[in-house]
Structures are given as C-alpha cells and as structure tokens.
Amino acid sequence: MIGHLRGKLAAKHPPLLLVDVGGVGYEVEAPMSTFYGLPGVGAEVSLHTHLVVREDAHILFGFGTERERSLFRELIKVSGVGPRIALGILSGATVDEFHRCVDTQDVASLTRIPGIGRKTAERLIIEMRDRLKALGGSAFATSPGGTQAASSPQAEAFSALVSLGYKPAEVTRLLQGLDPSVTTTEEMIRHALRSAAK
Questions:
Q1: CA distances, 60 to each of 50, 81, 91, 144 (Å)
Q2: Are residues 77 and 134 both part of a single domain?
Q3: Structural domain total, the chain
Q4: What is the rounded CA–CA span in Å between residue 191 and residue 4?
Q5: Where among 64, 94, 112 does a domain terminate?
Q6: pLDDT digits (tens, 9 = 90+) for 78-119
Q7: Same domain, 84 and 124
Q8: Is residue 153 part of a domain?
Q9: Residue pLDDT, tens place only, 123-155
Q10: What is the chain's Cα-based Rg?
Q11: Residue 156's CB: how many other CB atoms inside 10 A?
Q12: Would you report the helix, strand and coil content of the chain in percent, each value rounded to 5?
C-alpha cells in the first residue's frame, strides 16, 4: 500500500494531480478540498494517499491532511458509496462541515453535493454517526498532543450558538445563510443572532 507521497507537483488538472517522485510520475486523484491548498506547479508537495485496487485499474487518491484521508476511508465502507462518491463528498464539504451534517442530521445539505440523493444522505448519517465518533468526534476534535485543534471561525460560531440554546439544525441553517464577506467568529454570531430574531 502506498500511504504517502512527497515530490514535485508536475501538473494539476482537477481532480487529477501528477507528482514527480524521484523521476517517477504518480497520477493521483484528489478532492477539491486538497486542491485549494496546493502550491503552484513545480513546488514540492506532500500528500497522504490511499490506493484502490480494482480488476481494471490501480487508482491512487491523495489528500492534504490525515483527517481527509481518514474520512475518505470511512466513507468508502458505507454501502453504495464508492471512491468516486467519497471524493465528491470531500469536494463538496470540508471534514468539519461533513461532521456537522451528520451531527445535526442535515440531509438537505448533503443532497446538495453532486451524486448524493436523499437515500444516500440518510444512509450516510446513520452509518457514519458512530464511525465519526471513533475518528475523534466532531469538528472540535483534539489534536494528537491532547490540546484542542484550532477550530475554524464557522465551527467556533456553531459551538457558541448551540451553547446559547439554539438547535444544531437551526444553527446550521443560520450559518449557511450568512454573506460570504462575514468571516470572523464574532461577526458570524452577530449576524446569525440578527437573522434568528427576524
């Protein structure tokens, strides 16, 4: 099993990457969440990988973080979810966003991801609930050092609003309705509270 690649990024054509490792070019398929964090062509890149072996092909999937790869590995265990759909899920939602969808049973958000119908979304929520807990909880998982991993402003706003007594599904709806220009935790909370009061 090829678990890690480090080399020169020779080409990137979503969802395909070409990584030159010591003169050997590895074709790697990656989700958009990984693409957004890639350096320019010619720069060194390091990827966590997962090799899928089929009768007609060996396909290498690459991820910018261990959390993305771990989620991918759990997703492909779900009935009816293969590597392509798992890649689509990671392209349509961050790891934290997917955790929130499962935690809040947000079927609507999952069905907005291309290739995910209502039945698949419901199956994902049911089957992934316990698996996500085994992976280390939700968006607020702790890092290997035992300290809380840095949360995104949206994750912090989500936690704060739930603490204020709002239901998780309602908080998800409020945060999704925010203008993209709202980027800090404080602004998100302020705008969400205004929306909730209308």
A1: 6, 17, 16, 26
A2: yes
A3: 3
A4: 42
A5: 64
A6: 988 999 999 989 988 888 889 999 989 999 989 988 788 999
A7: yes
A8: yes
A9: 999 999 888 877 664 444 333 333 333 457 777
A10: 18
A11: 18
A12: 45, 20, 35
SS3 category, 60: strand
What CA–CA distances, in Å, run from 42 to 65, 104, 132, 147? 20, 41, 36, 35
The boundaries of the domain holding residue 133 are 66-139
Q: Among 117, 139, 161, which residue terminates a domain?
A: 139
Residue 144 lies in a domain: no
| 72 and 128 inside one domain | yes
CA within 13 Å, CB half, 168: 14
We report the CATH number of the domain holding residue 8 as 2.40.50.140
Phi, psi of 51 (to 5 degrees): -100, 125
Label residue 167 by pLDDT band (50, 70, 90).
confident
Q: Is residue 53 within 8 Å of 42, Cβ to Cβ?
A: no
> Are 36 and 90 members of one domain?
no
Element (H, E) at 19: strand 16-21
Q: Considering only residues 159 and 176, tell me which one the structure prediction assigns the higher pLDDT.
A: 176
> pLDDT tens digits for 38-64?
999 999 999 999 999 989 999 999 999
**Which amino acid would we find at residue 148?**
Q
